[in-house]
Each structure stands twice: as C-alpha cells, then as structure tokens.
C-alpha cells in the first residue's frame, strides 16, 4: 500500500520539529500575542493600537537568498534565522514602524526535526532581539523538488507607526547629516557573487586567510545586525528624518530611496574602513570598486538622516547602544541621488 512517507513526506518528523521549536519560539512572545487553540493562525491583540491617534500598519517580506547554501555546506543552521529577521524588521523600521510580529515559511527536501528546530530557534532569537513576536509559521517538505539537505526560508513581518511620525524623504532637507551604522559583515545580500568568487578563486570555507581572524566560512555566516530596536530608541531621543536599510543594490542606491527629488547625499568614502571580508572578496575575485559598491553594504548596514545640530547626540546614543556609528556625509540641494565626494 502506497503511503505519504513512501513519497518522501514524513508527517511524524514534522510533528517532532514543532515540539522541538516550541520553547524557542516562546522566548519571542509579546504581551499582545493571543493563543489560537487550533494553531492554524497567529493572533495579535489589536486593542494595542488604541494608544495611537492614527495607526498605520507596515508590512515587509523577505528571505536570505543564497546565504542558506553556506549554512548548508557548513551544517550550521542556528543563525540563518537571525538573518531572516534582520532583513524583514529593518525594512519595517525605515518608515519608523515598530515591528510587532513575524511569520516564517521553511521549504525543505526532508524534515530533519533538529535542523528545523535550529533554524526556527534562530528566527525566534532574531525576533527577541528585534522586540517582535514570532506568532506562526509553516514547514513544507518538498521531496523530489529539493535535495534532502536543502532548504529555503522566507518571512513576513508587520509593524505599526503613528501617521504623524512617519519617516521618509518628505522630512529630509539640505543641511541634514547622514549617519552610517556599521554592518556586522556581508549581512544577507550578494552571496551569489560570494559563491562565484569562492569557486573561481579556489577558496575553501574552512580556509584561514591572513586577512581574517576566523575561517572564511565563519566570516560568511556572521549574522545580520538587527538595527530596529536601536533605530526606534533613536527616534525617541532625536528628531530623525529618515532611515535607509542598506541591502541589495548597495549604499548609494538604497540611501537614494530615502531622499527627496530636490536633494542629494554627499558621502565621504574616507569616513570608514570596510571590514576585511570585503577586501578579501574584491581581491580574490578581482571585483572592481563600482561592482562592490552596487552589490555589498561594504560595512554600512543602516543610515540615519538627522538635523545637523542633533548629529553628535545621535552618534553618541547609537555608539552607547553598541552600534558603531559615524558621520557619513551630508544632504545638499540636488536631484535625489546619493554619491561619493
């Protein structure tokens, strides 16, 4: 008699994975989370919005790209979920929204309960760092479509911001200062180029390079820095005009999205030194500067645009929270571009 298990789907393994992840997910819980006895949906108490005059809901969805392939090759799965949360919540906070909750989706060739629990544990830890709740998710087994050790993950998040406190280009004016917040490394963009460089240069993930203080693989799996709680804390102390999350497309392209059509951002490339991993990639891959600029964050994971008279205070606050921050440039009259001096 033919069964679902013979087709490659192990229902019991899926149930085991759910049991293993429960305690980890619980660590991300917020007071507004309501238990759904059926488990089919995640519930969030919307009466929390009553304290807003005009609450705007913000939503974002993303994945981590081919960084998952590095995690799979190294058989290390407990941090890739942190990357997923960072990609989602740091998009939400750009408009000033507080991340409230997330859901996740994992597709895999074979459900290995312990591996799924590690992945979800990382997502839950990222949510805890960000201050949002992981209120639901789905794990799907795709035998035949994916190899047993392959998986991919995606997530969606929801946040809220007071309409009158919405951040963005409409607040930015010439004379403002652009602050750069250090990335923890590559974050979760550009890994197709990373893997191409590794293959063509004959590098190994377990290789120790003189430019790095740990193996290449460990450097590549460094989790994405989550900026959301720090950005929100900054808005409570400083008149922030805009944020820009530096992801695919690089610094200039992402920062330009937070500029009005009447202003440019002039950036000082000499104001910071990119982490060594970027020098490694550029050198071993023979990647020109322009290609590095539009592919990687080069050490700047988030930008804040603030009035000039509040820049020093903002830098002090963020550095005090453990986020290395510096004056990256200034806003001048222009046509909506970000460019280096």
Automatic annotation (TrEMBL):
CDD domains reported in the protein's UniProt record: PurM (cd02196)
Keywords, sorted A to Z: ATP-binding, Cytoplasm, Ligase, Nucleotide-binding, Purine biosynthesis
EC numbers, comma separated: 6.3.3.1
Pathway(s) per entry: Purine metabolism; IMP biosynthesis via de novo pathway; 5-amino-1-(5-phospho-D-ribosyl)imidazole from N(2)-formyl-N(1)-(5-phospho-D-ribosyl)glycinamide: step 2/2
GO biological process: 'de novo' IMP biosynthetic process; adenine biosynthetic process
Superkingdom per UniProt: Bacteria
MF terms (GO), sorted A to Z: ATP binding; phosphoribosylamine-glycine ligase activity; phosphoribosylformylglycinamidine cyclo-ligase activity
Compartments, record wording: Cytoplasm
Gene3D superfamilies: PurM-like C-terminal domain, PurM-like, N-terminal domain
Catalytic activity: 2-formamido-N(1)-(5-O-phospho-beta-D-ribosyl)acetamidine + ATP = 5-amino-1-(5-phospho-beta-D-ribosyl)imidazole + ADP + phosphate + H(+)
Limits of the PurM-like C-terminal domain: 174-337
Keyword hit for Cell inner membrane: no
Occurrences of domain PurM-like N-terminal (ranges): 52-161
A Pfam family per the record: AIRS_C
InterPro entries, A to Z: PurM-like_C_dom, PurM-like_C_sf, PurM-like_N, PurM-like_N_sf, PurM_cligase
Assigned GO CC terms: cytosol
Signal peptide start and end residues: none
Keyword Cytoplasm set for record: yes
NCBIfam families assigned: purM
Family: Belongs to the AIR synthase family.
The name this protein goes by in its record: Phosphoribosylformylglycinamidine cyclo-ligase
Organism encoding this protein: Thermobispora bispora (strain ATCC 19993 / DSM 43833 / CBS 139.67 / JCM 10125 / KCTC 9307 / NBRC 14880 / R51)
Lineage: Bacteria, Bacillati, Actinomycetota, Actinomycetes, Streptosporangiales
């Amino acid at each position: 008699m033919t069964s679902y298990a013979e087709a490659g789907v192990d229902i019991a393994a899926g149930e085991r994975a759910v049991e293993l992840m429960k305690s980890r997910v619980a660590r991300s819980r917020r007071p507004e989370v309501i238990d759904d006895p059926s488990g089919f949906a995640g519930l969030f108490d919307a009466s929390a919005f009553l304290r807003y005059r005009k609450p705007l809901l913000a939503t974002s969805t993303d994945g981590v790209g081919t960084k998952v392939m590095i995690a799979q090759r190294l058989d290390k799965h407990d941090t890739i979920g942190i990357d997923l949360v960072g990609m989602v919540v740091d998009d939400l906070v750009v408009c000033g929204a507080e991340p409230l909750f997330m859901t996740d989706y994992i597709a895999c060739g074979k459900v290995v309960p312990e591996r799924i629990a590690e992945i979800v544990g990382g997502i839950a830890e990222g949510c805890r760092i960000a201050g949002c709740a992981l209120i639901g998710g789905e794990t799907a087994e795709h035998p035949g479509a994916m190899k047993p050790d392959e998986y991919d993950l995606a997530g969606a998040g929801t946040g809220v911001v007071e309409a009158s406190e919405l951040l963005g280009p409409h607040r930015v004016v010439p004379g403002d200062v652009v602050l750069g917040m250090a990335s923890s490394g590559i974050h979760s963009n550009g890994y197709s180029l990373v893997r191409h460089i590794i293959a063509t240069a004959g590098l190994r993930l377990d290789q120790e390079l003189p430019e790095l203080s740990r193996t290449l693989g460990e450097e590549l799996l460094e989790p994405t820095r989550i900026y959301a709680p720090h950005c929100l804390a900054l808005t409570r102390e400083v008149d922030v005009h805009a944020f820009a999350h530096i992801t695919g497309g690089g610094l200039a392209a992402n920062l330009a999205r937070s500029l009005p059509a009447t202003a440019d951002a002039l950036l000082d490339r000499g104001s910071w030194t990119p982490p060594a991993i970027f020098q490694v990639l550029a050198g071993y891959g023979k990647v020109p500067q322009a290609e590095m600029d539009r592919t990687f964050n080069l050490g700047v994971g988030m930008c804040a645009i603030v009035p000039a008279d509040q820049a020093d205070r903002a830098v002090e606050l963020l550095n005090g929270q453990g986020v290395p921050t510096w004056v990256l440039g200034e806003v001048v009259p222009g046509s909506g571009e970000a460019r280096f001096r």
